[in-house]
Amino acid sequence: MSVTPTPDVGPGPASDGRSIGEIVGDVTQDLTTLIRQEIDLAKTELKEEGTKAAKGAGMLGGAGLAGFFAVLFLSTTLMFVLDEFLELWLAALIVTAVWAVATAALAVIGKNKLQASRPQLPQTQETLKEDVRWAKAQKN
User: Fold this and answer.
1) How far is C-alpha 53 from the chain's CA centre?
2) CA distance linking residue 105 with residue 135, whole number of Å
3) Which keywords annotate this record (predicted)?
């Protein structure tokens, strides 16, 4: 029976001449750099998406203001139409009640939509997956 020598598994130099401490230091430095780059990428993506959202919100704000005036004058018109059949105070009360119901419905729907939203960062997610694969390869 022959005995085959086993390789040293001690704190000696690696095959490229570096010690274990140097290898661990290099991997730690690489991971630190990688994490900083991921954070920078996430910040960049969020800034880009925030800029797009701000522009869209501004346009919607302007449309909302114009729509408000249209609805205000339409409501006033409806109130005067109802005044032909009812007293003015009752016509105003009916129009107000219709808008109160619409407001409540929109508030509930809007709240549900906000709770269901989950912002996505596709590039950051993909590079994080690549980083995990890279770290696993370094371990092997």
Assistant:
1) 11
2) 50
3) Membrane, Transmembrane, Transmembrane helix
Q: What is the model's pTM?
A: 0.43
Residues paired with 19 in a beta bridge:
13
pLDDT at 83 over 80: yes
Query: SS3 for the chain, per residue?
Result: CCCCCCCCCCCCECCCCCEHHHHHHHHHHHHHHHHHHHHHHHHHHHHHHHHHHHHHHHHHHHHHHHHHHHHHHHHHHHHHHHHCCCCHHHHHHHHHHHHHHHHHHHHHHHHHHHHHCCCCCHHHHHHHHHHHHHHHHHHC
What's the rounded Cα separation, in Å, for the pair 95 and 105? 16
Per-residue pLDDT reduced to its tens digit, 88-117: 999 999 999 999 999 999 999 988 888 877
122-139 and 20-83 helices cross at what angle (nearest 10)? Answer: 160
Backbone torsion region of residue 3, taken as left when φ is above 0, otherwise alpha when ψ lies between -120 and 50, otherwise beta: beta
